[in-house]
Amino acid sequence: MPGQETLPPQGQSQQPGREGPMHPQPRYEPRFPGSGRLEGKVAIVTGGDSGIGRAVSVLFAREGAKVVIVYLEENEDAKATAEAVRREGSECLTMAGDVGDESFCQKVAEETVRRFGRLDVLVNNAAEQHPKESLEEIGAAQLTRTFQTNIFGYFFLTKAAMPHLGEGGAIVNTTSVTAYRGSSHLLDYASTKGAIVAFTRSLAQNLAEKKIRVNAVAPGPIWTPLIPSTFPPDRVKQFGADVPLKRPGQPNEVASCHLFLACDDSSYMTGQVLHPNGGEIVGG
Fold first, then answer.
1. Which of 266, 191, 180, 261 has its CA nearest to residue 220?
2. Which residues have CB under 8 Å from 2's CB, separation 6+?
3. Shortest CA distance to 120 belongs to which of 170, 67, 69, 66?
4. One of 28, 154, 189, 268 is an active-site residue; which one?
């Protein structure tokens, strides 16, 4: 609905964005009591400091998992998420670094197992985006940086996790609705999200014999720090107005998809993508 305002206009000058200054605050708290669906499991969540990653981390903790939160440099957001995980009665490890660095990803996997003795679930979720109005505006540095974080990081951390994931393990990748419908102003970002879909489907086939499931979640417009840190205030105020539900989604409306794919509720699903996107029809 053109012109409909869904949020107060706001912006942030720093990327990655911070959750603290956002108003209203994104809703990350789990909406239902836990039922032990990840009891005794250990999960890594990249981009776990804020947004969808925060909601996933806290929900996993409520369901019994110990959580490793991987983030770039947003220390205050990561601290707040870790405290929320611990309030759920779980244990939490935070690790700051660049998932586009393969040696850091190796360190994350090794430290997870050293600290908790196992690894059961990997959630590849970290991402960055840099809107540009035309292809000519996207330089080699931006293109490389976006792919380094959004798809190379998924490859690197999955590769590092593989020696530690056993039968029954689960990998959940965060892609995007832009992988299916495209985005005229996020050409490089949407391209990485399409690559994540192909990576998910291919890896699912590759790991089927090992009984490790690989699935993905493709969110639509979700109220996370990526939004005020990458779009101007006049676009932020109409964010999510163009989907059938006419509003942006909240992180805790997406995290339940990650939980479903991470636990045995989805034991007969691999290579699949869930679409919490406010009613936009994708894939025919």
1. 180
2. 238, 241, 242
3. 170
4. 189
* CATH number assigned to the domain with residue range 42-274, chosen from the 4 options 3.40.50.720, 3.30.470.20, 3.40.50.1110, 1.20.1250.20: 3.40.50.720
Residue 168 gets the label, from left (phi > 0), alpha (psi -120 to 50) or beta, of left
> What is the DSSP-derived secondary structure letter of residue 120?
-
Enumerate the domain spans of the chain.
42-274
By the 8 A CB rule, do 6 and 247 touch?
Answer: yes
Compute how many other C-beta atoms are within 10 angstroms of the C-beta atom of residue 244.
12
| HSE-CB for 265 with a 13 A CA cutoff | 13
Tell me whether residue 189 is one of the annotated catalytic residues: yes
pTM over 0.70: yes
Among residues 248, 256, 254, the alpha carbon closest in space to that of 223 is found at 248
Neighbours of 184 (CB within 10 A): 11
Residues 108-128: pLDDT tens digits? Answer: 999 999 999 999 999 999 999
pLDDT in tens, 165-175: 999 999 999 99
φ, ψ (nearest 5 deg) of residue 247:
-160, 160
Pairwise CA distance, residues 217 & 122, whole Å? 13
